[in-house]
Design a protein that fits this description.
single chain; 232 residues; alpha/beta; four-stranded antiparallel β-sheet; three-stranded parallel β-sheet
Length: 232
């Protein structure tokens, strides 16, 4: 395990690892505990009371964070004809079909999100083994396989975030930059947790949201009091 730096350890000393902090207080600690030499991403880790081995307990969805992620999102759209023009007008960074597929086969992956019109999914399927493992495959459940190209591009540019439980029933979701105003981070986290609560599987028994922790890219985790994650 890599040795933790002096700044990390100093930041860690400010945090009681056994305490669950009110969300406002946790965000305050996040902003003062530790910073690397760049504007780190604020991240939330959530442990759910589900069994992800069961298909009906897999929690997956999207949330449009009210204040975005604080970074430029490069959007690729697979579309032809009128929808190609719609994508370009909406601000998509790259638009195409077979030409883009060939480019990706050659190793090009200079984009963050991909959208496809339903009629082109047969074409996109040729590179499913490339896009799938990287989380870049368009998916109708996530709103990225659609004829409403403008709305899909708009939402991704504004900070629409995908999430899904891992094998340990955890979610790891970015919620902005550490440099954001504290209230913006707060509202992004509340929007995320509200969305996750609405996706609770009917077959999930007992406590659904078990643990919430907040951290920066390079910083220590800060446990959050779940009851304080609400609109204020």
């Amino acid at each position: 395990m890599a040795k933790k730096g002096k700044k990390y350890l100093q930041g860690r000393e400010k945090i009681d690892k056994d305490k669950r902090y009110p969300l406002n207080e946790a965000i305050g600690l996040l902003k003062e505990a530790f910073h690397a030499g760049f504007d780190e991403t604020a991240e939330v880790a959530i442990r759910l009371g589900v069994d992800p081995r069961k298909a009906d307990q897999m929690v997956r969805g999207t949330v449009l964070l009210p204040h975005g992620l604080g970074k430029e999102v490069r959007v690729l759209v697979f579309a032809k004809g009128e929808k190609e023009k719609e994508a370009k007008d909406a601000g998509a960074d790259y638009v195409g079909a077979d030409d883009i597929v060939e480019k990706i086969k050659g190793g090009w992956l200079e984009f963050d999100k991909a959208v496809a019109t339903p009629d082109l999914m047969g074409v996109v399927g040729k590179i499913g083994k490339v896009l799938g493992p990287r989380g870049l495959m368009p998916n109708p459940k996530l709103g990225t396989v659609t004829f409403n190209v403008k709305e899909a591009v708009d939402e991704l540019k504004k900070g629409k975030v995908e999430f899904r439980t891992d094998k340990g029933a955890n979610l790891h979701v970015p919620v902005g930059k550490v440099s954001f105003d504290s209230q913006k981070i707060y509202e992004n986290i509340v929007a995320l947790v509200d969305t996750i609560n609405r996706l609770k599987p009917p077959s999930s028994k007992g406590q659904y949201v078990k643990n919430i922790a907040l951290s920066s890219t390079m910083g220590p985790g800060i446990k959050v009091d779940i009851a304080t994650v609400k609109e204020n």
